[in-house]
Amino acid sequence: MNAHDSSQTDVRLDDSPELRPEREATVGSAGRRRRPQRGERLMVPDAEFRSYYGRPVLQETPWQAPDIAGYLFLGGLAGASSVLAATAELSGRPRLARACKTGALCALGGSLYALIHDLGRPQRFLYMLRTFKVTSPMSVGTWILTAYGPQAGLAAATAVTGLFPRLGRAATMGAGLTGGAVATYTAALVANTAVPAWHDGHRELPYLFAGSAAASAGGLGMLAAPLAEAGPARRLALAGAVAEYAAAKRMERRMGPVAEPLKRGPGGLLLRLGTGLSLSGAAAGILLGRRDRRAAVAAGAALLAGAICTRFGIFHAGLDSSRDPAYTVEPQRARLSHPSQAPS
Amino acid sequence: MTLLEPDDPATSSGYADHPERMGFFTDTSVCIGCKACEVACKEWNHVPEDLLGFTGMSFDNTAGLGANTWRHVAFVEQPRRLGRQESGLVAADLPAGTVEAARDRTPASLGLPSHDGATGSASDMEFRWLMASDVCKHCTHAACLDVCPTGSLFRTEFGTVVVQEDICNGCGYCVPACPYGVIAKREDDGRVWKCTLCYDRLTVGQEPACAKSCPTDSIQFGELGELRERAARRVEQLHEAGVESARLYGHDPGDGVGGTGAFFLLLDEPEVYGLPPDPVVTTRDLPAMWRHVAVAATALLTVAAAVTWGSRT
């Protein structure tokens, strides 16, 4: 660098031997990153976050919302309904038990349809039974459903037909015990991915899913059973809705910036709607559903709708978080800069 | 942790007697962006056509790894130069007469637009291209392999991770499990596909097609231990040459995926190339997930019993 170079000018003289030609001066402008479309502004200061043309780091999850989000709801409904059916049977509430068993079997049928329909090669669905892998919640879930399904089916069939009551009771107990696993393992299923909003919620999602499943089973009981027998359904719905709300709040707080897709966008909207419907349905069930049949039906419907919204909300929030590289890169960057603050 | 394997994935997968773990060392500092690796991979593995169009992303019209792209060359344009890099923007030898004539003239601004909105200067012209050929990492702790419910994904005797297409039923679980966004579902086919590290070629002692075709040896194939030593020497050499930004990515067996079978020498942060800066195999947290699931399931049974009998008293 000599003195001549340091006096920079706006215009180059083509014939000045001291200056370099400017032919490449604007090329770099094409390579600047494109802004990510969602969430970027609140995640990080602009200068720090970098990505490859704003493209997501993760692949798009190839699961269809009606199938897999639908299964999250139906599986939860089936499992928790079987739990409620078992306690109803043991406590001498045959009509609540029968309603829950029938509902569980219908939800199970929908679940199996959705799960097989979502496969890229549906005719190969039995390949799931080639192996058992504890590292794969999908494999564990397949075996849970294999243990649960026949018992739930037997419980419903014997309750409806009145045949083989003792066999029916054993199946009801078996379905009730495995039903708890059916309703909650799906939390591990979605959390055991690299999708930021799902994985980072792995501590709270099982409780959120259990709560949502309990609320929907309570809703089903209120809808289908007579008022006199639906007491446990009303109380289960209230406990479930409160647990779901508490787990969701705790999850949002702990996840920090990655919780944004849970609060805004389609996922956030569905989750707010789901919480509102569940809490108001549960409250209406307890306060009005005791005496008024129509109020009980409305509260039950609100609870079922709330559970659907919650599951679809979690599903869409996860997909949104995987589409924005900021949610993948930023927490990892923060972990590298502050290793001491990394979660265990 | 029982779920995770040690650094020798072939042994922990049950191969009593197996060859050395094989892998790729992709040295992006000598990548010239020719995409021979992309073409060779497609040709050898009969990978179907992908996007045919313009992305507007520099010279990268492949966009990223996917079911139909198992090697992907990234192009990053940056307004900075490499250490001791000669940009090639040198003044030509001019006739003495021209030099004389220009000497007395005073430059004046004509208000023309220039790079970055700032006034033009020689430093603005410092510019570099980062090119990097991305591929499946063949992780030591591979999330895709862990979550596969059918056993379609398996560990080979070379320590690599391969999909058995006659087993895959297209459940798609491996796709969101991969922290690098490598494996993907082929839409018209329903199954998932990714780099096999040319398993067929390895079994007959051939190197993978991409490494074979790389004209600058940016893609180096070999025994992983030897590649790691070679990479360490290369980083040292680059640092001595003034390329301070050179760093390895995926070479460390202590990282979140236990080190990768395909690792890289990069000249900027990984996220600039579209790579996650600190990937972690999702199954590392799975024991905690199962514990919480067990507690939640028990709580569901307990609460259901409590609301049924608790109010009778």
Automatic annotation (TrEMBL), chain A:
Any GO CC annotation of this UniProt entry: plasma membrane
Keyword annotations for this protein, in alphabetical order, are:
Cell membrane, Membrane, Transmembrane, Transmembrane helix
> What are the Basic and acidic residues biased-composition ranges?
11-25
Q: Which residues form a coiled coil?
A: none
- Give the location in the cell: Cell membrane
Q: Is Membrane tagged as a keyword? A: yes
Instruction: Write down the membrane topology.
Output: Multi-pass membrane protein
Main location class: membrane
* Taxonomic superkingdom: Bacteria
User: Where is the chain membrane-spanning?
Assistant: 68-90, 140-164, 176-195, 207-228, 269-289, 295-314
What Pfam families has UniProt attached to this entry? NrfD (PF03916)
Q: Where is the composition biased (Polar residues)?
A: 1-10
Stretches for region Disordered? 1-40
Identify the InterPro entries for this entry. Electron_transfer_protein, NrfD-like
Q: Which family does it belong to?
A: Belongs to the NrfD family.
| PANTHER family named among the record's database cross-references | PROTEIN NRFD
Q: What is this protein called?
A: Formate-dependent nitrite reductase, membrane component NrfD
From TrEMBL, chain B:
Q: Which InterPro entries match?
A: 4Fe4S_Fe-S-bd (IPR017896), 4Fe4S_Fe_S_CS (IPR017900), FDH_Electron_Transfer_Unit (IPR051555), Formate_DH_Fe-S_su (IPR014603)
Annotated transmembrane regions: none
Annotated positions binding [4Fe-4S] cluster 4:
C148, C168, C171, C174
Q: Which residues form a coiled coil?
A: none
Positions of [4Fe-4S] cluster 3 binding: C136, C139, C144, C178
Instruction: Set out the biological process GO terms recorded for this chain's protein.
Output: cellular respiration; formate oxidation
Name the record gives this protein: Formate dehydrogenase iron-sulfur subunit
Q: Which UniProt keywords apply?
A: 4Fe-4S, Iron, Iron-sulfur, Metal-binding, Repeat
Per the UniProt record, the lineage of the source organism begins with: Bacteria, Bacillati, Actinomycetota, Actinomycetes, Streptosporangiales
Task: One Pfam family, please name it.
Answer: Fer4_11
| Cofactor: binding details | Binds 4 [4Fe-4S] clusters per subunit.
Q: Binding of [4Fe-4S] cluster 1: at which residues? A: C31, C34, C37, C214
Q: In which residues is [4Fe-4S] cluster 2 bound?
A: C41, C195, C198, C210
Asked whether the keyword S-adenosyl-L-methionine is assigned, the reply is no
Q: Which residues form the 4Fe-4S ferredoxin-type domain?
A: 22-50, 127-158, 159-188
Q: Which cofactor does it need?
A: [4Fe-4S] cluster
Q: Does the keyword Transport apply?
A: no
Task: Please provide, in alphabetical order, the Gene Ontology terms of the cellular component aspect for this entry.
Answer: cell envelope
Major localization listed first in the record, in broad terms: other
Where is the protein found, in the record's own terms? Cell envelope
The terms under GO molecular function for this entry are:
4 iron, 4 sulfur cluster binding; metal ion binding
